[in-house]
Design goal:
- There is one protein chain.
- By secondary structure, this protein is mainly alpha-helical.
- It has one domain.
- It is 72% helix and 0% strand.
- The chain contains nine helices and no strands.
């Protein structure tokens, strides 16, 4: 029995909530084999990190805005507190999607781009150096997650 057949069999049982079956049929949710427990540990660890940071930024956006390089702060089209609130919402969304394993490839891609931008606009400091490790974790999730069906179709056509 191949992996796809096994996943279909699992999805048809009462063990999987109906919402996940609905999302899986529309290729919006992917299940990962439990043999790859390290994937889940990394995914959940990163999810908690993004959720935690998002909440911390909401509590004190001005303090987190202080990490922005002056040249980057000058480019913001909105006040710093609003930009940081938007960052917090993005962090929370990334964390929530990772936590429920919703579109893991796309979520990890957005998270990786977000972290790369953070490293660019904040510079590498004793605080942001940790973001390099988190970025590597997001790239690992991207590599280990199934590609979305649209990318698979593009890849197969060319």
């Amino acid at each position: 029995m191949n992996e796809e057949t096994e996943l279909d069999a699992i999805s048809d049982t009462k063990q999987t909530p109906q919402i996940f079956t609905f999302l899986k049929k529309r290729k919006l949710y992917t299940e990962v084999s439990m043999k790859r427990i390290s994937f889940h540990i990394l995914r959940i660890g990163l999810a908690v990190t993004f959720l935690w940071i998002g909440i911390l930024i909401i509590k004190n956006p001005e303090a987190w805005g202080g990490y922005l390089q002056p040249w980057a702060a000058g480019l913001l089209p909105v006040p710093l507190a609003q930009a940081m609130f938007g960052t917090a919402i993005l962090d929370i969304a990334i964390g929530a999607f990772l936590l429920i394993n919703f579109l893991p490839w796309l979520t990890a891609f957005i998270g990786a781009v977000h972290l790369a931008v953070i490293l660019i606009v904040s510079g590498i400091t004793d605080i942001t150096v940790r973001d390099i490790g988190i970025l590597a974790g997001m790239l690992a999730i991207m590599i280990d997650s199934p590609l979305p069906s649209i990318i698979r179709r593009i890849k197969n056509n060319y």
